[in-house]
Amino acid sequence: MHPILFKIGPVTIYSYGVMIALGFIVGIYLARHRAKCDGIDPDRVIDLGVYVLISAIVGSRLLHVLLNLKEYLASPREIFMIHHGGLAFYGGVILAVATGALFLRKKKISFFGMGDTIIPYVALGQAIGRTGCLLNGCCYGKVTSLPWGAYFPGRELPLHPTQIYFSLNCLAVFLILIFIRERKAYSGQVFLSYFLLYPFGRFFIEFFRDDIPRTIFGVFTVPQLISVCIFFIALTIFIKESAKV
Q1: pLDDT at 183 > cutoff 90
Q2: Cβ(50)–Cβ(145) under 8 Å?
């Protein structure tokens, strides 16, 4: 693990924040380039990206704090220590989608049209950002005897490197979305496909995690419950939109 990249005097540069920032920059750069091909003003991608980034961080942190409320009530200052790790992705997704929808409606831009343009790069940005979890030592998995098991601070036995599983899942989603984009039959197909593919992979990877409690029937995690909900909502809309073609 390598949570701190380097220090410049009193300033500490954390790997977690750097990888999230890198994922965002790469995603925005590629989405802006793609926007030109899709007939969308590239500057609108930048504008949207700023709103989405802020809302995603706020939403992710809020959900993480709520899921670990006792811990944060005992040490309220930690709520603002994002560089220590602790962003629940789905909290960010919910707030970011809502914020993005409001922004696009105000600017009179097609929600699904913009969604198809940027969503593959959201997945790619996630793949990059998840490496920050590995460097930070958070989001670790259960004990494993598999040859790729990794050692984490404070843990004596090798664990599933679930951060890598998440990253690979996001990379696979990115590649599939690019494939679908070149063959899509209607606006929104790529966007909706993300909300089918990512939750599907996320649901199964969660079984290997060991850093969050299984509060749903003692078997499932909250992210798994959210994954199921998002998957079936997206599936319903996907089937409805496909039927129009």
Answers
A1: yes
A2: no
User: Which of left, alpha, beta for 39 (phi over 0: left; psi -120 to 50: alpha)?
Assistant: left
Q: Which residues contact 195 (CB under 8 A, 6 or more apart)?
A: 230, 231, 233, 234
Break the chain into its structural domains and give their ranges.
Answer: 4-244
Measured in Å, how far apart are the chain's first and last C-alpha atoms? 49
Q: What are 73-110's pLDDT values in tens digits?
A: 888 888 887 766 677 889 999 999 999 999 999 999 99
Rounded average pLDDT over 184-191: 96
The pLDDT tens digits of the residues spanning 226-244 come to 999 999 999 999 999 999 9
Instruction: Spell out the long-range contacts of 238-245 with Cβ–Cβ below 8 A and sequence spacing 24 or more.
Output: 238/189, 238/192, 238/193, 238/196, 241/186, 241/188, 241/189, 241/192, 242/185, 242/186, 242/189, 244/186, 245/185, 245/186
Note the helical H segments in 68-110: 69-74, 89-107
3-state secondary structure of 163: helix
Q: Which two tokens stand for residue 240?
A: 């409805």
